[in-house]
Amino acid sequence: MKTILALLTFLAGISVQAKETVTVGLASNFSELSTVSFSPFGGYFKDAIELAISDNKKTLDAAQIEITLQEFDYGKDEINVLKKVKEAAESKSLVVMGYNYSAPALLSAPLHVEEKLPVIFPSASANRLSTFGKYVHLGSFSNKFMVQTLAKIASKTIKAKKILILAAVDCAYCMDLVKSFEEEIKKYDTKIVSSIPLLEKDSDFSKIADTAKKLSFDAVFVPCQELTAARLISALTEAGIRKPFLGADGWGNEGSEFFRVLKGKKFTGYSVTHWHPKLNTAKSKKFVADYLKRFNKLPNDTSVLAYDSMTLLIQTLIKTKPLNRESLEKNLSLVKTFDGITGKAYWEAHQAPRKDIVVLKTTDTGFAIDQIKAVARE
């Protein structure tokens, strides 16, 4: 009898094997209003991470893995980014995800390499992020990749011969786009007539509009984040400038901030992004419905990039044994393709992915999909 009881106890112990807890660090501005956004950027980011974990619960349960999240909030002060990387390295975090803009991503990347702590940047697009190598992984296509499409739109769609650039010189993302655009536009019969510098913290762009009115140009490239871009376009339209505007993924994809600033002003713009809420695929429709039901708001491009990156991480975690930083880094480096909400992505190790890019046409009535440019399939 004792033997039977011992056997049953042993078998019960096997059946209720404890899950292995994996800590994922989330690094973002979760708490402070910034100069480029009306609301803390970390909200959409964290919501999407939680949704991805919930949607993959059965997969995680089958692998006996439980994910816990640890926030590393650096606010709007970039100096805090360095402190938070150190905190993350000393924590139980197996990997860190976040640093959503290019500036904090560029600050944090070399420290993650030094600390041998894998990091995934879902939405940062700086070209230089592809140069750090091991421990750095990218979910967004690069600024150079975006500009290839934007330069073609400027020359072939708008048929612009002369372009004015308005960029924030204190914005790493903005200046990276400018540099890439200046190189790419050389391939076309289009030239840059002037580049007027500004600061992200500025809110009154009337003087820049006055300067622009004295110049001759066919289109305006505004490679800024959404709030700054909206304020610039508003100032130029108020000054009577009716030329098309060009922007990158910093403009967003549904315009909540754009139209709070522009308030019905007439303008036409073209921008590129990763995804749009009205993308007509089964995965995208389900994601929008689930996100809206859970958080009572529509997702944005930050949400979808975070969701895809977290899903990719989960798929990699279940293949990783033992669950430590070095093993996870090895498996993340082996990822070549991933089919997510934004479509199929293709990687070379530690490089920005190649994936479909959505071209949006924007007017006073909203953002609408103009075309989807597909990458070559492997």
Search tags:
378 residues; alpha/beta; Rossmann fold; 2 domains; seven-stranded mixed sheet; 15 strands
What does this protein structure show overall?
The protein is an alpha/beta fold. The mean pLDDT is 91. The radius of gyration is 23 Å and the shape is globular. It folds into 2 domains: 2-140 and 281-347, Rossmann fold; 144-273 and 358-373, Response regulator (Rossmann fold, 3-Layer(aba) Sandwich). The protein is built from 13 helices and 15 strands. 46% of the residues are buried. The strands form 3 sheets. It has a 7-stranded mixed sheet with strand order 7-6-8-9-10-14-15, sandwiched between helices. A 5-stranded parallel sheet has the order 2-1-3-4-5. A 3-stranded antiparallel sheet has the order 11-12-13, covered by helices on one side.
- Parts with pLDDT < 50 across at least 5 consecutive residues: none
Question: For the largest beta sheet, what order do the strands appear in spatially?
Answer: 7-6-8-9-10-14-15
Mean pLDDT equals 91
Biggest sheet statistics: 7 strands, mixed
Count structural domains. Answer: 2
CATH architecture of the largest domain: 3-Layer(aba) Sandwich
Count of DSSP H/I helices: 13
What is the structural class? alpha/beta
How many beta-strand segments? 15
Q: How are helices and strands ordered from N to C?
A: HEHHEHEHEEHEHEHEHEHEHHHEEEEE
- How far apart, in Å, are the first and last alpha carbons? 63 Å
The CATH topology annotation of the largest domain reads as Rossmann fold
Query: Could you name the CATH class of the largest domain?
Result: Alpha Beta
Strand content: 15-25%
